[in-house]
Structure formats: structure tokens, C-alpha cells
Amino acid sequence: MKRALFAFLTVLIGIAVVAGTALFVAKNGAEPPTLTATAAGTSQTSNGEVKHATLELSVFPNASATQAGPNIPASTTTLVANSQQWPFYSPSTSIQLPANALVTVTIHQYDTGGQIYNNWFAKPAGTVGNTMTVDGKDVTSVAPSNVAHTFTIHQYPDSNQPYMYVSVPLPAQADNAANQANGYPTPIDVTFSFMTGAPGNYVWNCEFPCGNGYVEFGGPMSQRGFMSGTVTVA
Amino acid sequence: MSTAVAIHEEAHVPQPKQISKPGGLLRRTNFLTALISGVVTAAVFWFVTDKITSAVAGAGATNSMALPSGLNINITMMYIGWVIGFMAGIGAFAGPIRWFLGHDLTHADAEYMAGKDMGREKFWKFTTDHKVVGIQYLVVTLVLFGFGGLLAMLIRTELGATWTEVFNPNFYNSIIGTHGIVMIIAMIIVISGPIGNFIVPIMCGARDMAFPRLNALSIWLLIAAIPPLVSNLLMGGIRDGWTVYQPLADQAPIGMIGYQICIITFAFSTGIASVNLITTIVRMRAAGMTWSRTPILVYGILGSSIMGLVWFPMYQYSQILALSDRTLLTSFFVPSSGGSVWLYENLFWLLGHPEVYVIVIPATAGLLEYLPVFVRKPLFSYKLAVSGIFGVVGLSAVVWVHHMYMTGWAPQSNYPFMMSTEMISIPFSFLVLVILGTMWRGKPWKRLPMMAVYAVVWNKVIGGITGVYLSDTPVDQYMHGSMFVVAHFHYMLMGAGLFGAMGVISYFFPKMIGRYLDELWGSIGFWTAFAGFQITFMSMFVAGLQGMPRRVLQFDSLFNISNWISTIGAYIIGIGMLIFLYAIIDSWRNGIPAPDNPWGGKTLENFTSTPVPHENFPVLPVVTSGPYDFGTPDPYELADDAIMQKTEGAEKVSARS
Amino acid sequence: MSYDIDELPESPSRPPLSERLKTPEGQRIVKVATVVSVLTVLLLIFCVWWPLISLPPTMSDTQAEVKSTLLIFSIASAPVMALVWGIAYYSLRHWNAGSGDTPPEDGPPIRDNNRLSLAWVVGSALLTAFLLVWGLAALTSTTTLPTDAKPLTINVIGQQWLWNFQYPEDGGITSNDLVLPKDRPVIFNVTSTDVIHSFWIPEMGIKIDANPRVTTTTLTTPDTLGVFNVRCAELCGLNHSYMETSGRVVAPTDFDQWVKDQGGSPGMLVPLDVNKIEPKE
Question: Closest partner residue to B436 among C56, C84, C108, by Cβ?
Fold first, then answer.
């Protein structure tokens, strides 16, 4: 009987260790607080009148005194890896969008860029009319040698949720662009719209090699909260 | 060896002079000094490297970050400092340094190092006695299994929560790799470490291993290798499977260096242990123990040591090259600078596949070793068992490409490697026949070790048959990289390897610890884990057949049900393993004391007292018959009457709990 | 040396089979054979039924070949599994000596049986040879291009963490989902811009790694209309789990229409070298 008790106690301790570790890790691996798209009435589209929502994001080349870095727990990863020098999306990479709605996204782009690997990602795709506007002008492609980042929402085929693929290139700042008072150049504003379907979970990431390590896909490219995140359609 | 001393008494061998108390500096070194020394040396290496790299980077550089790979160089040197400092702190270099200074270790020093008349502190020191090393290996194995099991529970938690990402994908990718490599290391040492070091020299009738100091070196190198590996989780993780395929590994953060240093160090440890075991087995078997009277476990350990010795350097080499890519910016495996990813895959799998047999062969040989004891019959077709083991050892060299069928490396090579891979089922079928033939008409004594044989037969058949599917290239074209593969190798490594090891350890536990493993709680733990194992991995076969890739954390809802079932099964395994762990800890302290011959076996370890005395045998035994002479009138005859008298009391086996 | 004690003496006066089966030894053989036969039937049903309900729908000739090979292997291995498990079960059930504190009495000293060992070795070698020959034939047929139709070449590019597909024979269009015409052989030239990926279409039974800087090739002929999945089967970093896309097999006329909708032109060759997509230095 005593042995049964101690055996049970061993199991309990084991369960406590697993649960404790899981909770600790889940908490420290948390992503930035969710950014919900702002409702903006309704809008007339080819599918009839649908809800309309807007979302505003910025891309910074690095954190600085005027611009704090991503709002993620200061885990050891980010401390060791010198993440202050990493480019990142702001204010959050965890995005929530309304279902069955037209979403208009505006991205303020502050970073320089270069040549992208695959020219396919220099064209907007999956947006309304496969176009976007850059500083107010309609554009259907960006020079592949002049891309700073991309905003690419992934397909995630699951029988329970609709297919979604949206990819938009962000044109680069000139290397010698003059800095404003906040230490960054005047942003390039990119605006595009796309339709969401039924609720589902997606991810997005940047497809421009802006990290470190092999083919510059390490560092911020491989770390949620910087150049990649989640999209929840709810 | 002391055996020959009596004969050559006349010869004058100059002995080194005793310059201090026996043991000298080694009296002060232990695990704690090793930890302190390791941490301090690591810090010193970091500081010095940082200064040097900053200087190399040129004027204005405040730290090593100014160099493209400065951080990597610093971390690498820090880990190297840890290993060197740890080994120095444990006293591993005392012998060579004293020899170099002309004050070689004396006989008294050697006896001190062997832990003669020492209490429990010998387990925390650089002790050369093979029995101490065996116990150290056992504890390290249990710790590694505990850690790997914790990670397994986290993985299954993530996969069971199909609706959300519980963990950050980076962390998930890191724990699948860390779980893999921790479990692989634990499985490689689980038999060869505790049983190979503790039992094999006694079974061979030797007083110790051939190279006792190398033996201590191998266990402490292993212990030094583990902290760098575990620390990867705090340094951004390895973010790759346990295979750490390049160039993805090159993208991973600095945690990868911990993995690489661990493997490089562990390969040294394995090489040293293999050389030691091979020499002991080949050169130090008792008089009269011909190759046809050598117990089958000894053959199994020999085969596995040969594979480890030959193939581990390939893996080590691949990690040295990868580390060089990272720190010195070479490009062995960096395709954008002309490196080859296939080169890495080949180097990796040259060990990667034989390593499966390094795990499975000792476990199988361990079962064959005690099966005759429990059915009270000779081993069926000893020759077939030996040829099965060496058939696997031989063929293991020419099958590695079946892991690369789908890499596109050399599509034409799929034909010959498909042939060699399927051929390996023939020597394995020999081992199956030996098990069945030994069981035939024997009355199984249904204690936990015997029941483990039935459990392993069940698992190994499933693992083996699904292995034949995977060896077939067209089927592998569907299965490769899917959950089916994961389920298959868990059936081999865990189902046959780990459950076999649990049986082998419960068989040798009384001899090693001096107390029986608690039969009731050991069995409850074993069968709970076994039931959970079937649930987890049977359901994982379904996920694989449905088309679920491995190493994912989110997936199509098609796979939800099989993953929920798998997760429930995994928790049951966890509970079962914890109960088994409790049985080990409890029996270690309060178990029923074991007699000299705990199970009525006929191998040499049963003819010395329990607990085994300092130099194993009062007088070295002489072997006059085979190890499995059950049912025949000729029992073992030992040269010395004193030993015979001692063993008479051991015929009756003590009660179980 | 071996003592073939278990073997019946080989002599002209050997009793007929019907007599030998009545001896205790014969009875035992009959019982074991019964257990093994029952198990064989059960396992055959299980091993055939189980993959059939689990596998996704078959959409190509390659997957049909994979499926039939899988079933043949199941059928061949069921008796082997039954034999091993049957004997182990019989040993546990019929010769059980309990789990007492003392070992049971010694059993018969059977050390070897040369005829049985030889039969076992030859049997396992023959079974392996059969599976090998079947597998080699299946491998040859799945890697050979049918000669009766003009194949379609598609460049598959894997990159962290997306697939995209180029159609160099249809005006060089690029797509992020895979559209294939029915009943026309397709050759996939697969490469990667960064790390190793693995291009996997479960429904078509094809898989090949996408390696940086080199092109690997696989082929198949889709033969069923419908939707399929494209997955990555090699861990490729952060979003590996999400590196999936869908594809569909359409009628050849629909395929031509789709190409035109994408701005391409069916049959227009655009020299798109898949190797041109390379990691930058």
C-alpha cells in the first residue's frame, strides 16, 4: 500500500514537471499581443456589400531610441542574438481579421532592400485586382532588384477552412534616403485590399532575404514577432 | 593484470615511487570541482577569445561581433573550454600529466582510482572500477531518458492540441531535434554502458576492463557532452530534426554549436568505450572460454562496439565540418558557396543507419542471453545467433542510402541499396528463429525479464515488417518523411530497443545493485508503458498512411483523430515509465536482497558473490563448458573450490516482493 | 556439436504421417499450426483493410503502383507475423511455468535442428527475394516515362516556406497552386532557393527532395480529376508546417483555358531554366 502511494506520488511529480515546463515554455514563447483590424463600415465589392476593415502596419529596419522593438517576452533567444539590429513589423505580427470581409492594409515601409530570389514575389498576388498602391499610385509589380520586404499570407489547405494566398512586395528605400527626426527616412506607404473567407488560421512571413545566416533566412526571418506571424480570420 | 603476477614474481619491474598519499591530487577532485572548473574555464575561454577576435576584427571593434562569425567562434571556444575544464576538474588529466612529469601513478594510486575501500563518493569521482562506471552509466541513462521523455510529452501535447500552436514553432522545432538526439544517445548507451561495463568483464571472467582509465574517461566525456546539448534550448534551439540537415542547420542560432560540440565529444567517448570493450572481449576472456563458449551478450556488445568504432567517426566528422562552416566560414555544406548537401547526408547516414543496429543488437543479444535461463533450455542454434549478429554488423555498412532514396542524390543507386536493405531481414530472421527455437517446449518462468521477451517479440515483428515496407523504394516514395516512418523507428528503437533494455536491466539489476527489481511495480510500469506504446504508435501508423508529414506542429484536420489518440497513448507511456522509474528507485533502496546467483544462470557473473567484490573474483575462473548447458548433466565446473562452495547456496532463488 | 534430439529418427520404418500426428509431438504441431492459421487469416484481413481505409484517394498511376505494392507486402508478411506471434503465444499459454520464486525444472536440451535452420534460412531468403523482385519491377515502372503521350514539364521551386510552380511549356507562367491536365505524363523538375525541402503529393505517391543549386526529377501521370495536396516532407525551418498548397487535376481543355487565364499560351516554349533560381552569393 505504501508502495502504491509512492508510485502515485512519482507519477504526480512527473505530471507536475511536464505541466510546469509546458506552461513556462508556452508563456515565454508567446508572440506579440494580437492586433485586430479596425472595422470601417461596409464596402461595395463584386461579391456585393461586405464588411470592411482596415489595418495599419510599419516595417522598421531596426529598433532604436524612438521605436521600441517587437513586443515579445525578453526570452534568452532575443537577448543573445543581438536582435536590436533586426528588421521587424510593428506594432504586432499577430493579426486578427474579420471573416467574409474586405480588408484594406496600409504598410509604412522604412527599410532599404535589394534583389529578391524569386521574381514571382515582386508582383502582388491575391489582392483585389492583383494590384496595390505605392504612395497613392496603382502598381502591378515592383522591380525585383528593389524589394525591401514582402507581406505574404500563406496558403494552409485544410478541409475545414478556405484557401487564402495574399502576397505583396514592399518597395525599398533608396540607400541614401535622408533620415527624419525619428531616425528613419520618410516611409513608403503601400496599400492593398483583399477578401477574407470563412474563419480559419493562417501564417504570414516575409519572402525577402533580410535575416542573417545561410541565404539570410536566419535571425529575424526565422523568429516569430519580427518578419513572420499569424493571421486569424474570426 | 594481476593474474600473471604470481608466475613472474622473479622478474624485476621498476615501480614508480610513491610521492604523496595514494591518489595524490585525485583525492580532491570530484563532480563538484569538475563543474566549477568547467564553468570557470568556459568563462576564461570566452573572455580570451573575445579579446583575440576583437583584435583580429581591427581597430574600433569593441567585441567579437565585428567579425562575421565572431559570436559563433566565441560560443564554440566557450563550449570547448567547458569540456576541457570539466575533464581537468574531474582529474582526467592527472595520470598523463604525472607520467609526463616522471611521477607515474603507483599501484596504490591505481587502487585509489579504482575506488578501493571507498564509500559512495567513488560514484562522484574519476573512478576506474568498471562496476562504478557501469552504475554511473545507468544513472546517466536514466537522467537522459527522463529529459528526453519530458520533451516527448511536450511534443505530444503540441500535436494533441490540434486547434492551436501551444509553443512557438521555433521551440517546437528545437524540442523535436533535442528529443531525438537525447533519446538516440540514451539508447546507444543504455545496454553498452551499464551492462557492457558492469556485466561484460565479469561475464568474461576478467578483473576489470582492458583499459580502466579509458573507461572512466568515456563516461566523464559523455557527462561533459550533455550540458552543451541541453543548453541549446536556452540559446535559440537547434530548430532542426536530430539529423540537423545542412544548410538549415547553418541558419539556426548559436544553440546549434551546443549540438555539434556534444556530438564531437560524444563520438570520442563512444570510440574510447568501443576500443575498451573490444579489447576486453577479445583478449581478456577467462581461460577455457573459447569463442563457442562465449555468452551471446558478449557477442552482441562486441558487434555493437565494432559498428560504433567504425561508423561514429563519420558522424563526428560531419559535425566538425559543419562547425567549421559556421565558425571559419568554410563551405563544405553551404550550397550558395559550392558546398554539397548530399555530402552531409551521406556522412550523417553512414553512422545514422548502423547506429540503429548499435542500439538494437545489444538489446536483442541481452534478451537471447537470459532467455535460456528463464525457459531452462540451451540457446537454440548458438551458431545461427552469432551469424545473425555478425550478418547485421556486416550488412549495416552497406544500407545507409535507403535514408536517401528520395533525396535525388543518385536515383540509380536505389536499386542496389534496396537489395542490401531487404537482405538485412535475413540475419534478423536468424535471431527470430533463435528466440522461437529456444522458447519451443521450454517452460517459461513468467518473471518480468521473461515477459519483456514476449513484449519485444511483439514490437519487433511490427517494427521489422513496416521496415520491409520502407525498404521498398516505391512505397518509401509515399512513406518517406511521414509519420509512418516515425512510428516504424519508434517500434524498432523504443519497442525493441528500450523495452528490451528494460528487460535486460531488470534481469541484471539484482547482480548490479544487489537487490531484486520490485516485480509488482516494475511489471505495472512496464505493461502500462507497453499499452500506451501500442496506442500511440499504432495510431501514428494511421496518420502516416493518411499522409501526415513528420516534424509539423499544425496539420490538416484530417489527421486530428489519430493525433488525439496518439497523445493519450503518449501520456499513458509517460505514466508507465514513471512507475517503472519508481520501481527502480524503490528497489535500489529497499528491494529484496539478491543471492549470488539471482536467477539460476550459468554464466560467470553468477559465480561470484553479490555484491560483486572489488576485483570480481577471488581467483580467476576457468571455463570448462558452454554458458547455456541447461537440461544436461554437466554443470559449470570452476577451477577453484572456494567459488564452487560459494555458489552452492545460490541455487535457491530468493523470494520476490 | 549439435544433438538433434528433437528430430524424429530418419529410418525406413518411420510411421506414416497420420500416426505421427497422433503422438504428443504431432498433437503439438497440429495445435500450433491451428493457432498460426487463425492468426494468419486475421492478420491478412487487418493488413489489407487497414492501409486501404487509411490511404488518401489514388489519383495517379504511381500511387496505384504504390498501393498494390503495399498490399502485396502486407499479404506476404501476414503469415510471417502469424508464425512468430503464434509460437510465442503458444509458448506462453501452453508451457507456462508460472511466476514463482524458483526457476522451473530444466527443459529438453534442444541445441540445434539443422533441417529446421536450413529451411528457415532458405525460406526467409526466398521471401526476401520475392519482395525484392517485386519491388525492383515496381521501381522500374514508376520511374519510367510512358512513351505514348507527350509529357508536360513543370518546374517546382521550394523556398522557405512556399511552393511555386513554373510552366515553361505554356508561356512561362508561374502559379502558387499546381494545376495538372488529366492523363498526360508530367515531369517535375524540382529545386530550392534555400534549404532542403521535399516535394510530396500524397495522392499521387510522388516525392523528391528540393535541393538548393541542383535539380531533381520525378514523374507521374495523373489519372483522376479532383483536388490534391502538395506538402513539404523535409523540416525546413520556422513555417515548415505551413509549407503546403493545394492542386487540382483538370480536363486537358480546362487546363488550356486556365493557362490562358494566367496570361500564358498553351504549348509556347519559354526557356525557363529552373537552375536560374539560385541563392544569392
Answer: C84
What residue spans define the domains of chain C? 17-95+117-142, 152-276
8 Å CB contact between C246 and C230: yes
Closest CA to B473 of C187, C56, C138, C208: C138
pLDDT digit string, tens, across residues B9-34: 556 777 777 777 887 788 889 999 99
CA pair distance C1, C17, nearest whole angstrom: 29
Cell numbers that stand for B516 in this block: 531484486
Q: What is the pTM of this model?
A: 0.91
CATH superfamily of C152-276: Cupredoxins -  blue copper proteins (2.60.40.420)
Residue labelled with grid coordinates 528526453 = B148
Say what the ipTM of the complex is. Answer: 0.92
C-alpha to C-alpha distance for B406 and B401, rounded to whole angstroms: 10
The confidence score (pLDDT) of residue B65 equals 66
Q: How far is A58 from chain B (nearest CA, A)?
A: 23
Suggest the residue from B74, B178, B251 to mutate for an interface test with chain A (most A CBs closer than 10 A).
Answer: B251
- With a CB cutoff of 8 Å and minimum separation 6, the contacts of B60 are B66
- φ/ψ region of B23 (left if φ > 0, alpha if ψ in -120 to 50, else beta) reads left
Handedness of CA B387, B356, B202, B577 (dihedral sign): negative
List the single best residue of A6, A9, A10 to mutate versus B (max B Cβ within 10 A).
A10
Least CB–CB distance from C164: residue in A115, A120, A222 = A120
* CB contacts, 8 Å: C275 with chain A: none
C157 touches chain A (CB under 8 A): yes
> What distance in Å separates residue B489's CA from the closest CA in chain A?
24
B482 and C CB contact within 8 Å: yes
Q: In the predicted model, what is the mean pLDDT of chain B?
A: 89
* Beta carbons of A194 and A126 less than 8 angstroms apart: yes
Nearest-Cα residue of chain C relative to residue B432: C84
Segment A21-61, tens digit of pLDDT: 999 888 877 788 889 998 888 888 877 888 999 999 999 98
SS (H, E, C) B583-648: HHHHHHHHCCECCCCCCCCCCHHHHCCCCCCCCCCCCCCECCCCCCCCCCCCCCCCCCHHHHHHHH
| pLDDT, tens digit, 9 for 90 and up, residues B584-642 | 999 999 999 999 999 989 899 999 998 899 889 988 999 988 889 887 654 444 444 43
Report how far residue A232's alpha carbon sits from residue A96's, in angstroms, rounded to the nearest whole number. Answer: 5
The pLDDT tens digits for C49-73 are: 988 889 999 999 999 999 999 999 9
- Are the beta carbons of C7 and C113 closer than 8 angstroms? yes
List, in order of start, the domains of chain B with CATH numbers.
24-103 (no CATH), 134-590 (1.20.210.10)
Instruction: Determine the straight-line distance between the first and last CA of chain C, rounded to whole angstroms.
Output: 69
Taking CB atoms and an 8 Å cutoff, what residues of chain A touch B592?
none
Residue A226 has φ and ψ, to the nearest 5°, of: -110, -75
Rounded Cα distance between B439 and B378, Å, is 10
Cβ–Cβ below 8 Å for C193 and A224: no
Question: Smallest Cα–Cα separation from C247: which of C156, C159, C170?
Answer: C156
* C236 in contact with B, Cβ within 8 Å: yes
Q: Which residues of A touch B583 (CB under 8 A)?
A: 7
Those residues of chain A whose CB sits closer than 8 Å to some CB in chain B are 3, 6-7, 10-11, 13-15, 17-18, 21-22, 25-26, 29-31, 76-77, 80-82, 156-160, 201, 211, 213-215, 217-219, 222-224, 230
Q: Is B236 on the interface with A (CB under 8 A)?
A: yes
For residues A187 and A182, what is the distance between their CA atoms, to the nearest angstrom? 11
Give yes or no for C105 touching B (CB within 8 A): yes
Contact check, Cβ <8 Å, C280/A125: no
